[in-house]
User: Fold this.
Amino acid sequence: MVTIKDKTFVPFISAEVIQARIQELAGQINEDYAHRQPLIVIVLNGAFIFAADLVKHLTIPCEITFIRVASYAATESSGQVKEILGLTDTIAGRDLILVEDIVDTGLTISEVCSQLQAQNPASLAVTTLLFKPDALKKPLDLSYVGFEIENRFVLGYGLDYDGWGRNTKDILVLES
Ligand code: IMP
Assistant:
C-alpha cells in the first residue's frame, strides 16, 4: 500500500506480469518491423520506464527520440490545444512507433498522431502500456496495447499522481 498526499493506492499489476507482457509486445514489434528501421518516439514523462524496458527487448535497428506534449487553453471554442515539444528529427518517410504510458480519453494521443501525420511519416503505430477503453472519447487505432484496464486511476511504473509516485516497479490503483 502506498499513500500519496490524501490518497491511498493498492497493488494492481505486478512487476513480473508487466515485464512478461513487455517482452511479448517487443517480440511482436520485432516481427512486424523485421525489415524496417523505425524511429521510436517516446512520450515523456509518464512513458519513461515502460519505454526503457521495452526498447531493451527490441532487436531491430531503431532510432529513439523523446517528445513532450504541452496542453494549454487556446480559445473557449477550441478548448485545450496540444503542442508537441522536442521533436527535432525529420519524420517524413520514417516508420514511427509512438510509445505512451496510458491512453485514457485518447485526446492526447489522437492530437499527437494528427500532428505527426501532417509531416508525412511512412507509417505511424501507437504502443501504450495501459488502455482504459471505457474512458475513450475518440476512436483510436492502437497497434500494441499492454493491458486493457478498467476506468480507475493508476499510479507507478512511470505514472504519477501530481508528480509523485512514478518510482515503483509495480502498478498501483487508487483504493476504491
Ligand atoms: P488522455 O486522457 O488519453 O489524453 O490521457 C493523457 C495523459 O493523462 C496520460 O498520458 C497520462 O499522463 C495521464 N493519465 C491518464 N490516466 C491516468 C491514470 O490513471 N494515472 C496517471 N496518469 C493518467
User: Anything to note?
Assistant: Helices lie at 15-32, 48-56, 107-117.
